[in-house]
Amino acid sequence: MKASTSHSINVSSSTEYLREVRNFVQHFVQQFDVNKKDLDEIILAVDEAYTNIIKHAYNNDPNHNVKIELGTSTDTLWVRLSDTGSHFNADEYQPPDLLKRIKNKQRGGMGVYLINKLMDSVEYSSAGKTNTILMRKRI
Questions:
Q1: What is the pLDDT along the chain (139 residues), one digit of tens a residue?
Q2: Is there a domain that residue 1 lies in?
Q3: Is residue 41 part of a domain?
Q4: Which helix (H) or strand (E) holds 73?
Q5: From CA 4, how far away is CA 74, in angstroms rounded?
Q6: Which residues, including other chains, have CB under 8 Å from residue 37's CB and lie 6 or more apart?
Q7: In the chain, where does DSSP find H-type helix?
Q8: Of 16, 36, 68, 82, most Cβ neighbours within 10 A?
Q9: C-alpha pair distances (Å), 111 with each of 27, 57, 74, 76
Q10: What is the CATH number of the domain that holds 95?
């Protein structure tokens, strides 16, 4: 792995920029010796986190920004997404009942669950007006 490094982008809070976000993540992660499964999981976790910010923090209002930072330290890749929208309270999160969702053919509502399954650690924080999700994956 290369020495500690990081890169960031600012994107509007619109699904119109999902491809740009995915490409940014892919190009950064591919610099390291990461297998395809881990690459796909990191991209999906960032995709879900970014989409949740768009939908829930900004209520689908495209006139806001999301900062996405990617970095490495030792054997870990980290991703930080920051926004100034509505705060997500991780303490109140209840994992979905998967069997019930399948039985009722429910769509959506799986983002936080997926992020937690795909990444090794996930932390949510708020400081002032800024909300942050920090995700880590050992690579």
A1: 445 667 999 999 999 999 999 999 999 999 988 999 999 999 999 999 999 999 999 999 999 999 999 999 888 999 999 999 999 877 776 766 666 666 666 666 667 889 999 999 999 999 999 999 999 999 8
A2: no
A3: yes
A4: strand 65-73
A5: 7
A6: none
A7: 18-29, 36-52, 98-103, 111-118
A8: 68
A9: 23, 14, 28, 22
A10: 3.30.565.10
30 within domain boundaries: yes
Specify burial of residue 45 (Cβ count, 10 A radius: 0-12, 13-18, 19+): buried
Structure tokens at 103: 């039985």
Cα–Cα distance, 35 to 33 (Å, whole number) = 7
Distance of CA 5 to the CA centre of its chain: 19
Residue 20 domain-assigned (yes or no): yes
Residues 6+ apart with CB under 8 A from 85: 13, 53, 56, 57, 58, 59, 64, 131
Confidence (pLDDT) at 89: 77
Report the distance separating Cα 13 and Cα 57, nearest Å: 9
Number of independent structural domains in the chain = 1
Phi, psi of 130 (to 5 degrees): -100, 125
